[in-house]
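Practice record 12: protein with copper (II) ion.
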Amino acid sequence: MLYDLKQFEVRAGQPVKLEFVNPDAISHNLVIIRPRTEEAVALEVNRMIADPKQIEIGQYIPETDAILFHTEMVPPNSSETPRFIAPREPGNYPYICTFPGHWTIMKGVMVVK
Ligand SMILES: [Cu+2]
């Protein structure tokens, strides 16, 4: 329940390719969000999980413009190679896993320069 990279750097407005490998026994995702929105996004996820249908869907991606980019929920021993364009605005963009309860420890920072 940890990302091995706590921080990585990208260039503003440039294409980024990540390798997201999940060797854990439970599913995880990687959700890149606007600066200082961790708690707001986590709160939205908490609202979602009151709905049994959302638990069945199991993606835990709330509809909010705080989320810039996200992977699918990656099952154990699987991987995803997401590509996206880095934000144009330099800054520290947190990434979190939105599987309920994970975000407090499963997080890191994408530094946009
Ligand atoms: Cu997780």
